[in-house]
Amino acid sequence: MQGDARRRRNENYFEDIPRSKLERQMAQTGDWGEPSITLRPPNEATASTPVQYWQHHPEKLIFQSCDYKAFYLGSMLIKELRGTESTQDACAKMRVSLNFHFNSMYFS
Fold first, then answer.
1. 3-class secondary structure, 71
2. What's the maximum distance between 2 C-alpha atoms anywhere in the chain?
3. What separation in angstroms does the CA of 45 have from each of 39, 48, 52, 54, 91?
4. Could you give the 3-state DSSP secondary structure of residue 19?
5. Is the pTM of this model over 0.90?
């Protein structure tokens, strides 16, 4: 029973998903059409995922590639580049993180 409900939910899953401009164009021109591959929604894939929808069409995820840009300073992700301010924020976070790990290792 539960599998049937999940299957019915997944059949209509890609109809209401906000897609990128390129994906909308490709779907309109018939390059992809309806997905031939069914993916579980990301929130069903793991318990800790708050994302409700995949950003890309299943065929794009499997057969093509998705380009993303991320900026890091050390191991800290810079979400928004704001000149020296974002660098100072990342350094402050690293100091706090380093102090926490050092103190917990030292006093444990």
1. strand
2. 62
3. 9, 9, 10, 11, 34
4. coil
5. no
